[in-house]
From TrEMBL:
It comes from Bradyrhizobium guangdongense. This is 2'-5' RNA ligase. Keywords: Ligase. InterPro entries: Cyclic_Pdiesterase. GO terms for molecular function: ligase activity. SUPFAM superfamilies: LigT-like.
Length: 177
C-alpha cells in the first residue's frame, strides 16, 4: 500500500479533464483514470509501505498550503512519459503555487522517503490522463497529444492524503476560494 498527498479538482471544472480521460481511455485496453474513482489531481509525493506515517504526511500537506487559496490552473498541452505502457498527461502552464507546495512538502519530509519521480529536481507537475496506453495504440496516442490545440482551466480546490490501491481518502481539506 502507498500513501500520496495531492491537490484535486473536486468541482465542475474537472469535467474538461474527465472528458480527456475518456478520449485517452480509447487508447488503453481498459480506461485507467475512471477506474480510480478519484478526481483530476496533482500528486506532490508518494511514499511506499510504512516509509512515512499518515499523520506526518498529512501534517506536511496542511503546513504546505497555509495561506494558499484554490488554484486555477491552465493546461495547453498534452505530453507523455515514455515507457511501456505509455502515460499521457496534461501539462500545466507554469504555476508558482504548485512548485511552492511541492518545495514545502519536500522540506518537511526527507525526499529520500519519496518515490524518485516525486523528489526535488525530478518532479514534473502533471495531471494524468491515462496510465496504460496499449503498445499497439502508442503512435495514435502520441498523435492525439500532439494535435491537442485547446486551453482548459481547472480549479483545484481540495488537498488530501490518500492510500492506494484502491484509492481511499484518509484526510482532506477544502482550500478557501
Amino acid at each position: 500500500m502507498a500513501l500520496a498527498i495531492n491537490i484535486r479538482a473536486d468541482n465542475n471544472s474537472a469535467a474538461e479533464i474527465e472528458r480527456l480521460w475518456d478520449q485517452v481511455g480509447a487508447f488503453e485496453a481498459a480506461p485507467s483514470m475512471r477506474a480510480l474513482g478519484y478526481r483530476p489531481h496533482f500528486t506532490f509525493a508518494i511514499y511506499d509501505g510504512s516509509a512515512i506515517e499518515q499523520q506526518v504526511a498529512w501534517d506536511a500537506m496542511l503546513a504546505a498550503v497555509v495561506g494558499e487559496t484554490q488554484l486555477r490552473i491552465e493546461f495547453k498541452r498534452i505530453r507523455w512519459f515514455e515507457g511501456s505502457p505509455l502515460v499521457l498527461w496534461a501539462e500545466p502552464v507554469v504555476d508558482s503555487a504548485l512548485a511552492r507546495i511541492h518545495r514545502a512538502v519536500s522540506a518537511a519530509i526527507d525526499p529520500a522517503h519519496c518515490r524518485p519521480h516525486y523528489r526535488p529536481g525530478a518532479w514534473i507537475p502533471h495531471c494524468t490522463l491515462g496510465t496504460a496506453v496499449a503498445d499497439e495504440r502508442r503512435n495514435d496516442a502520441i498523435a492525439f497529444a500532439r494535435a491537442f490545440d485547446r486551453s482548459i482551466e481547472l480549479t483545484f480546490d481540495v488537498v488530501d492524503c490518500v492510500v492506494f490501491p484502491p484509492v481511499r481518502i484518509i484526510a482532506e481539506w477544502r482550500l478557501p476560494s
